[in-house]
Recover the amino acids of this structure.
């Protein structure tokens, strides 16, 4: 009897020991070794980015030349003035524009530069004296009777960051405050033209705000331009559908170096560009042009242009080694059976450039060669393509694709052509403002969406690489916002590019794929067959020990009674 009692007691101790090991060691060890690894993320800082408040600061310098102010008014220079405007775009997005204007009189060297015979020469001379910082605007006020500008021109905007403003009529009795107040309207128009407008910035926030907040014109410009990217591939293709009739020659390398490369050099702060070219034979358009007897030529209507791209695109090929967006520019030479070929707009009028573009894809130009040779010419006829004419069209299309918006200046404004550079300095600044805001908006949306996803699904693995990319994106975003507020446009663009790269690398990391984590029902399906056979004997033994303990306690109480 004593041996049996000892054996039962030993069994109870063994069951308790096994249960203790399972509870104290087994369960914590299993929990630790099977838990989902989730590195720390700055959720509090990310939540602050969900409510985006941007401040754009512009430095403005207004320089008065000789003859625009009285000696008494000049004594009060230099002075400065700060003007701020606030716009609440929506509940989570706000904009503040800070214009810090400094007023001064022109130096002797600047006066000499303003005495040049033409405004273009004056603009170049002023640029040689001092180069304005990126994002700034310098306005030179010249006398009302100055011969530097034509009579009907009130403002001349040059290739750099300077503008010449004809002084409005001032009364000699006016105080300096009244003079500046009367001048501020024109200066504000100049800054809006050379720097940014509110609608341009709202259009750049299209990833965050509703379409109703953006004007149709700004939205059209935004939809036409290709999305911001660290790099772009630009491909020029010559399409020769009839090589038996035409032997085409084009100096694409020289044309790119002289016409396209200066523009790409200026856009280097925005993205990296690579350019290549190709010649494709026996490539035909996806639509059959119609012959118009009234002009004795074949025509393509505006409605049929959308059907041209897809068949041609299949022959263009792609660079599999690069993930950058591709901009295609196609030069199509019609075969002898469909020449000449002209493109017509929606009003049935011929397009002067004989070209069209597709938003975020590229452009196509039709180049007729039928007038370059007579019927007695023996095929294939050697044709030298006028690359200056072709590249002029492609350059205009490339500017639109990259987001260089067409500016509509107020009446009395004259904008100097950018010339061989392909892009004026102030046009570059306008693009930098838009791209910086667009990058910040896109990166903040991406990183907040990722944070919400990771917060809602607790089983997704967050490895150290993702945490590093998220932290880098948040830090770069904060730096970009701070640089915009300080008016350092170049640094703001640089940090915004780093932010969008880091946020997209984190969002599209392969480890975040849904196949790499298990929902709770799958976990139960895996672990129950493993743990149930082991846990049942332990649980039954513990229940038996508890029942025996209750029975012994009841027997003792009955004996004591």
């Amino acid at each position: 009897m004593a041996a049996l009692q000892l054996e039962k007691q030993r069994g109870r101790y063994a069951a308790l020991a096994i249960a203790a090991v399972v509870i104290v060691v087994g369960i914590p060890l299993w929990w630790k070794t099977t838990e989902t690894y989730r590195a720390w993320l700055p959720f509090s800082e990310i939540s602050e980015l969900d409510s985006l408040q941007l401040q754009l600061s512009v430095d403005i310098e207004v320089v008065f030349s000789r003859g625009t102010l009285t000696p008494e008014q000049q004594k009060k220079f230099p002075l400065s003035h700060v003007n701020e405007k606030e716009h609440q775009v929506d509940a989570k997005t706000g904009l503040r524009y800070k214009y810090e204007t400094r007023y001064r009189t022109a130096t002797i060297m600047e006066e000499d530069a303003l005495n040049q015979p033409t405004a273009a020469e004056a603009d170049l001379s002023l640029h040689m004296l001092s180069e304005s910082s990126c994002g700034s605007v310098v306005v030179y006020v010249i006398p009302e009777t100055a011969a530097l500008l034509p009579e009907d021109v009130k403002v001349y905007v040059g290739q750099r960051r300077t503008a010449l403003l004809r002084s409005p009529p001032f009364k000699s009795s006016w105080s300096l405050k009244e003079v500046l107040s009367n001048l501020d309207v024109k200066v504000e128009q100049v800054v809006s033209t050379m720097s940014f407008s509110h609608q341009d910035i709202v259009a750049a926030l299209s990833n965050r705000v509703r379409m109703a907040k953006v004007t149709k014109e700004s939205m059209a410009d935004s939809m036409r331009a290709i999305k911001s990217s660290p790099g772009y591939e630009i491909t020029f293709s010559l399409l020769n559908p009839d090589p038996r009739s035409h032997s085409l020659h084009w100096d694409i390398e020289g044309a790119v170096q002289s016409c396209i490369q200066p523009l790409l050099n200026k856009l280097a702060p925005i993205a990296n560009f690579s350019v290549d070219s190709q010649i494709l034979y026996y490539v035909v358009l996806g639509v059959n042009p119609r012959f118009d007897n009234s002009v004795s030529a074949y025509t393509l209507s505006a409605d049929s242009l959308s059907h041209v791209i897809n068949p041609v695109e299949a022959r263009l090929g792609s660079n599999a080694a690069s993930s950058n967006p591709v901009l295609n520019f196609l030069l199509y030479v019609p075969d002898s059976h469909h020449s000449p070929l002209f493109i017509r707009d929606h009003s049935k009028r011929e397009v002067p450039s004989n070209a069209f573009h597709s938003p975020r894809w590229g452009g196509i130009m039709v180049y007729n060669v039928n007038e370059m040779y007579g019927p007695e010419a023996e095929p294939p006829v050697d044709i030298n393509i006028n690359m200056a004419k072709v590249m002029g069209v492609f350059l205009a299309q490339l500017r639109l694709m990259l987001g260089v918006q067409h500016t509509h200046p107020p009446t009395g404004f004259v904008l100097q052509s950018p010339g061989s550079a392909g892009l004026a300095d102030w046009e570059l600044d306008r693009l930098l403002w838009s791209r910086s805001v667009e990058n910040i908006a896109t990166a903040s949306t991406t990183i907040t969406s990722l944070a919400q996803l990771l917060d809602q699904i607790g089983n997704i693995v967050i490895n150290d690489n993702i945490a590093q990319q998220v932290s880098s994106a948040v830090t770069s975003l904060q730096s970009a916002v701070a640089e915009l507020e300080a008016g350092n446009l170049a640094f703001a663009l640089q940090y915004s590019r780093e932010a969008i790269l880091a946020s997209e690398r984190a969002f599209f990391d392969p480890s975040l794929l849904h196949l790499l984590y298990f929902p709770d029902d799958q976990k139960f399906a895996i672990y129950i067959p493993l743990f149930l056979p082991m846990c049942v004997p332990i649980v039954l033994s513990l229940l038996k020990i508890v029942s025996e303990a209750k029975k012994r306690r009841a027997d003792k109480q009955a004996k004591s009674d």
Q: What stands out?
A: The radius of gyration is 36 Å. The chain has a mean pLDDT of 84. The chain has three domains: 1-36+517-558, 55-202, 229-402.
